[in-house]
Task: structure prediction
Amino acid sequence: MEVINCKSCGKMFHSVMGIKRCPACRQADDAKFKMIKEYLYDCPGATIEEVVENLGVERRLVLDFLREGRLETIGPNMVIQCENCGEPIHSGKYCDKCHREITLNLRSAANAIKKPRKLDKGTGMHIKNKKK
Result:
């Protein structure tokens, strides 16, 4: 746990698991998300600009919800890019291809850590000037 400044209001708080907003701002964001969700049920396919204009929420917040995977664009209106390759995506941080590649790399790294290393003869540690 570390003490950081809230990304939204600047207030200091104890961040757990890399959360960048204080509890009060997260609660306010959750209320705005609920409002956006209800709006999208009534107006499916609305653009970001329509959501921002009709609800008075910040564009940044809508983009954050897209990055977090809480919202998703439909059709050709892809406004965010894969953080790895830059391809347009509907939601999240990575395109499917990069997500698979990152997952495979992490799994292979985890498996490499689990496997015991085999040492060649004459390598490793020993006691120097062994005395009895």
